[in-house]
Amino acid sequence: MSHDCVSCALNPQRLEVVAGSHDFVVVVAGNPNTGKSTVFNALTGLRQRSGNWPGTTVTRAEGGYRHNGRGYKVVDLPGVYSLRSATGEEDVARAYLENGIHDVTVVVVDATRLERHLGLVLQILQVTHHVVVALNLVDEAERHGIVVDTRRLARSLGVPVVATAARRGRGIADLMSSVESVATGSFTSRVRRPPNEDLSDDDAALVVFAEADRIARFCVRTEGRRVRQRVDGALDRVLTHRVWGFVVMALLFFAVFWFTIAGAAVPSDLLYRLLVQDGHAVVRDLLGGAPWWLTGLVADGVYLGTAWVIAVMLPPMAIFFPLFTLLEDFGYLPRVAFNLDRLFAAAGAHGKQSLTMMMGYGCNAAGVTATRIIDSPRERLIAVITNNFSICNGRWPTLILMGTIFIGQLAPPGAAGLVAAASVVLVAVLGIVMTLVVSWMLSKTVLRGATSVYSLELPPYRPPQVLRTIYTSIIDRTLKVLRRAVVMAAPAGAVIWLIGNVDVVGESLAAHLVHGLDPLGLALGLNGVILLAYVVAIPANEIIIPAILLLTMTVGPVDFGVPGGVLLELGDAETASVLIEAGGWTLLTGVNLMLFSLLHNPCSTTVLTIWKETRSLKWTATATLLPLALAFLVTFLTATAARLT
Amino acid sequence: MTLDQLPRASSAVVIALDSAGAERLRLMDLGILPGTEVRADLTSPLGDPTAYLVRGSLIVLRRTQARAIHVELAAT
């Protein structure tokens, strides 16, 4: 069988992994940025399960493969710099290597930075001798004129060394064979490294790195004198330049947004027609014989709510996230963190928060998950709590609509579109200001004493794997979004239909609730309909506008003759007339809705993600209630100011 | 001198680390130890932090961190 077959994800030999049906357990360890997860993926194909290590918030991925008739379970350890530092990841890795059940440890090292990564190999060899070293990124090393003598390296370390280029599947079959020989005992490691436990931390580190240095000198040859690849150097000079650095950053940022917005328009319309218009009719027909309330609840409530969220959410997500991942693969994103770090340092945060914020513009839940790239506990919490101020994809439609109806109208007809767009950008900028201000406040108050260790590494630039990225991020995200849509939007749709159709004492439940919320709503420069819509739309911001329209038509003084509880879409002009004539909306309502949309609490998916990432009720509550309090405060202030003038 | 004073594109050798605790461990894990050669490679467009070339990797340190690392200019 050729290499390609062995490492192909579709190879039937690799598909029959069942938990518990393995003969050996292999753990994959290594520094961050060594392509460790690529090696893990190349071994296990696309059959993986990910979760967290018990009792921690550290990601745990597991997979498996079969080789020569034996089953191997593969556990991916978190990427660590050493086995002794203070981070949770390092604790997990150390504990597992010392006490966990495993037969072979594969340590992934970067062939272009062997000297530094050997330190971790030597530390691991003090804990276990059943080690195989995967000398990864050899293709990159070749490009840089770096030659590693694997035989010398294997002799120095006393364990097998396999040269791999995991992205291309090179060396993966050899790696499986080496793992087999160590697992079955046909290869005996010749390691004699007594742990130097009587040494101080400093001395132990010195000893380890001195040895790493010695081994690297013995095994690595550089052909041609190159401190760093010239291309990388030139790219960095441009991308971190005082002027060009920011120009490129702005251009790329706009390009990503433009592609997302322009590219999503057509598929969104298509999905809307297919799911909302045609699909709705089909579902109603299917339920033809059912009682009216069942048809209403299922077709008008659950189905429409779900279809709506999918049509609004899926296309932008399927464009935004792959673009983002491509920039990440290329190695550009850490440079953004590097360029902006000073701004975040002043707010007591980490430059990498700029990246989690950008993720938040796609989806706050994804942004919160992305904070894992920040390994310092204090800065990570700050990034989690403030991610809400990045306006997610579900909130853009609300802002654009309000900007168009209420603010664009103030400008002369020719400039209306421009003024509307500017107002939306202004709200987004306000979000960035809020992020920095709230970050600064948190770092000066509740998070003052928390641990903080700054580190950032700029990985080498790598050609991104376009097709693989698009495939995995679309498949991965699509499934996640679909699941979220069903789990979250379906009940929201049901609730909207129910409150619109269940009558209590002569009027619908929705009407009672709206009248009850009106005083508070009006005090905030909003109204009862908006507040009720925000309560109903806690599971998904995407349905705010349809929910507001629906409630306004159900509860308002004007009878529109629409069936109760059916979400519908109207053009801008009809929307404006419904809101202004039936809802009594003013410019203040529009402006305050934009502010409320920016500041209010994160959606339930994001809250759940924050809980999963922090495992702390206190921080989850803070991240949920702090934005809500700010939303109330700011809208109350603007409403009061408007009344005084 | 300390590392933050190292001019761009010049190299120095680490003599001692003044930092303590987790910060010190992290620096050592990144391979910044007495005897290590360090080169100031890139400065952020906002003036801070700086990326240093250490054992073939670009490690970014803020000025406050670099101030605690004592170095002497490498004899080139």
From TrEMBL, chain A:
GO CC entries: plasma membrane
Keyword NADP: no
Residues annotated as domain FeoB-type G: 23-185
GO molecular function, one term: GTP binding
Transmembrane segments: 243-266, 302-327, 396-412, 418-442, 481-500, 520-537, 544-562, 582-599, 619-642
Record bears the keyword NAD: no
UniProt xrefs under SUPFAM superfamilies: P-loop containing nucleoside triphosphate hydrolases (SSF52540)
InterPro entries, alphabetized: Fe2_transport_prot_B_C, FeoB_GTPase, G_FEOB_dom, Gate_dom, P-loop_NTPase
CDD domains: FeoB
Keywords (A to Z) from UniProt: Membrane, Transmembrane, Transmembrane helix
Pfam families per record: FeoB_C, FeoB_N, Gate
PANTHER family, per database record: FERROUS IRON TRANSPORT PROTEIN B
Name of the protein this chain belongs to: Ferrous iron transport protein B
From TrEMBL, chain B:
InterPro entries xrefs: Fe-transptr_FeoA-like, FeoA, FeoA_core_dom, Transcriptional_repressor_C
A Pfam family of this chain: FeoA
GO molecular function: transition metal ion binding
SUPFAM superfamilies, per the entry: C-terminal domain of transcriptional repressors (SSF50037)
Residue ranges occupied by any Ferrous iron transporter FeoA-like domain in the UniProt entry: 1-73
This protein's UniProt keywords: Iron
Name listed for the protein in its UniProt record: Fe2+ transport system protein FeoA
The organism of origin for this protein: Kribbella shirazensis
